[in-house]
């Protein structure tokens, strides 16, 4: 259990830590382990270095110094032997000089040995033994200087000096053995301590590696796993698959907060999408009475969507209301145009009847004028009758002129209405285009509205074509009416002239019958003019009938447009 806690973290606590604390806690322990490992390694190096330094500075130095003293003793012995055996006095003096110099080396090396020696041997006794050997050597040196015999010198060397030197050598051999044992013991101790420190270092490194592996796994569970889940959720969100998003990760860290935010955002987005779909379904069904039914879900940056939905429905409702109002006005105008056209047709019929009567009267006048050529007396009474008929014809022509003026005024009004209808058709086409654009933006939800927009566009096009056709017919009618007005004016002027002629005939007919013949010719011309007027009136009658038919068609189209608009709730 302790080892498990040592090489791993508390998964539950790590799960709820913030990212900063996750890494801080994880790497803090790892750094601690690494520090322990480094400390253990440093301790190992220090112990090894200290052990080597101790062996070198103490045991190696001790061994070196005692070895130097022993070497000097051997050199001292050799020098005395060379001096003893030398035949040449200079050689002997040289060897004795070398021997005397060795005593100084003994003192310096022994002093140095005392400073570093850590063993148990009594250096004071060794110093005494060495001093004894030095004294015996000094005695031997003096014997050489005093010229003692060789036997005496040899006896001093062999019986006194050499045994003293041998005692010192044995003392230093003991020191050498002791130093070697201490060095071996210290070396073994250093090896043990270094090995122990290395074992501790290796254990710490192994624990650190196991901890790092477990830490990596736990951090993956605490970070990578939820990140993968959130990444998949974000991918589904980017693909628009809101209903497929499932987030199970819960924590008090940043990823937990991010998961909660994504879940909340997904839910809010799904609610907004559903509300938009419902709103567009109502719009596609023709309900423009209101926009979103859940305005409270459109918060912050989503608010422009709600504003756009409300703006679309309100503007479409207002536009359709204007279209409906315009359609009603078009329908009323078409009805008035139809009534005016019917009145025009009836007036033209009356004019035709009046012209027929006038034609009959003119023919009668012509017959009477012919008869006047036979009888001036009867012609006088007939001229009076002609005068009366001409006055009636002038009055009727005056009424024809008034009727033609009324027809011109009504035609101009019809042209104005047709222009208004064409403007409405253009606005309706623009409305249809805007509706098609909004339906395209709405995507699948706007298909129904796109169909309605297409029907409105077709209706606008038909209305525009009908209005244009009506405008062309009205323009033709106006031209015909202008021609008719000119003819009527000419006819009225002719009738006035006839009246004046008849007045002159009344005064002159009794004087000459020739004037009656001339009047007969004039009556023929009048008859031809009346026939022309009759043709114009018949053309006006046909035009009025066509205007009536066009106004009826325009009225029917207006009713169809009203029927389509009535399908919408505005």
Can you offer a commentary on this structure?
This protein is mainly α and 570 residues long. It has two domains: 27-213, Four Helix Bundle (Hemerythrin (Met), subunit A) (Up-down Bundle); 304-565, Helix Hairpins (Orthogonal Bundle). The protein has eleven helices and no strands. The longest helix is centred in the middle third of the chain and has 89 residues, at 150-238. The protein is rod-shaped and about 230 Å long. The protein starts with a helix and ends in a 5-residue tail after the last helix.
Proportion in β-strands = under 5%
Low-confidence stretches: none
CATH architecture of the largest domain: Orthogonal Bundle
Profile the largest sheet.
Answer: none
Please tally the β strands and state the result: 0
Q: State the separation between the terminal residues, measured CA to CA.
A: 76 Å
* Tally of domains: 2
CATH topology of the largest domain: Helix Hairpins
Order of helices and strands: HHHHHHHHHHH
Cα-atom Rg, whole angstroms? 71 Å
CATH class of the largest domain: Mainly Alpha
Query: Shape, please?
Result: rod-shaped
Query: Mean of residue pLDDT?
Result: 75
Question: Could you give the topology of this structure?
Answer:
Elements: H1 2-7, H2 11-16, H3 19-85, H4 89-116, H5 123-146, H6 150-238, H7 254-284, H8 303-374, H9 376-442, H10 447-508, H11 514-565
Helix pairs in contact: 3-4, 3-6, 4-5, 5-6, 6-7, 8-9, 8-11, 9-10, 10-11
Short description:
It is built from eleven helices and no strands.
Using brief descriptors, characterize the structure shown:
Helix Hairpins; 2 domains; 570 residues; Four Helix Bundle (Hemerythrin (Met), subunit A); mainly alpha; rod-shaped
């Amino acid at each position: 259990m302790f080892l498990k806690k040592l090489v791993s973290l508390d998964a539950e606590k790590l799960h709820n830590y913030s990212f900063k604390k996750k890494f801080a806690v994880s790497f803090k322990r790892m750094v601690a382990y690494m520090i322990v490992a480094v400390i253990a390694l440093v301790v190992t190096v220090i112990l090894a270095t200290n052990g080597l330094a101790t062996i070198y500075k103490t045991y190696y130095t001790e061994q070196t110094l005692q070895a130097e003293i022993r070497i000097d003793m051997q050199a001292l012995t050799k020098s005395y032997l060379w001096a003893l055996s030398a035949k040449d006095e200079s050689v002997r003096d040289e060897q004795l000089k070398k021997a005397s110099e060795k005593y100084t080396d003994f003192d310096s090396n022994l002093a140095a040995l005392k400073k570093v020696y850590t063993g148990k041997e009594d250096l004071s006794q060794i110093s005494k033994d060495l001093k004894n050997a030095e004294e015996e050597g000094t005695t031997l040196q003096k014997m050489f200087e005093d010229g003692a015999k060789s036997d005496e010198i040899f006896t001093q060397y062999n019986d006194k000096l050499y045994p003293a030197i041998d005692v010192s050598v044995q003392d230093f051999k003991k020191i050498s053995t002791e130093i070697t044992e201490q060095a071996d013991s210290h070396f073994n101790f250093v090896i043990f301590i270094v090995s122990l420190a290395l074992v501790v270092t290796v254990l710490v490194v192994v624990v650190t590696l196991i901890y790092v592996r477990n830490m990596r796994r736990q951090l993956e569970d605490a970070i990578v796993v939820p990140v993968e889940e959130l990444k998949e959720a974000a991918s589904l969100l980017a693909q628009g698959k809101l209903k497929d998003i499932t987030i199970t990760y819960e924590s008090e860290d940043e990823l937990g907060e991010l998961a909660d935010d994504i879940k909340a955002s997904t839910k809010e987005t799904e609610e907004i999408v559903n509300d938009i779909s419902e709103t567009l379904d109502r719009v596609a069904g023709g309900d423009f009475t209101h926009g979103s039914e859940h305005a409270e879900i459109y918060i912050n940056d989503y608010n422009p969507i709600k504003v756009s939905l409300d703006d679309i429905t309100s503007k479409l409702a207002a536009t359709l209301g204007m279209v409906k109002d315009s359609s009603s006005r078009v329908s009323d105008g078409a009805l008035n145009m139809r009534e005016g056209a019917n009145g025009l047709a009836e007036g033209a019929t009356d004019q035709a009847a009046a012209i027929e009567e006038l034609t009959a009267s003119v023919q009668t006048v012509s017959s009477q004028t012919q008869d006047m050529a036979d009888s001036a007396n009867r012609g006088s009474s007939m001229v009076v009758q002609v005068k009366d008929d001409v006055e009636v014809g002038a009055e009727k022509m005056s009424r024809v002129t008034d009727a033609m003026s009324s027809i011109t005024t009504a035609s101009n009004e019809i042209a104005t209405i047709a222009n208004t209808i064409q403007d409405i058709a253009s606005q309706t086409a623009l409305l249809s285009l805007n509706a098609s654009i909004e339906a395209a933006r709405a995507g699948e939800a706007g298909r129904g509205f796109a169909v309605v927009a297409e029907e409105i566009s077709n209706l606008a096009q038909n209305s525009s074509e009908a209005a244009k056709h009506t405008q062309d017919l009205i323009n033709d009618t106006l031209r015909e009416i202008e021609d008719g007005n000119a003819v009527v004016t000419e006819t009225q002027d002719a009738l006035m002239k006839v009246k004046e002629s008849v007045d002159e005939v009344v005064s002159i007919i009794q004087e000459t019958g020739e004037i009656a013949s001339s009047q007969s010719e004039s009556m023929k011309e009048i008859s031809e003019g009346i026939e022309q007027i009759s043709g114009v009136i018949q053309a006006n009658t046909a035009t009025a009938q066509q205007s009536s038919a066009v106004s009826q068609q325009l009225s029917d189209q207006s009713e169809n447009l009203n029927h389509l608009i009535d399908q919408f709730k505005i």
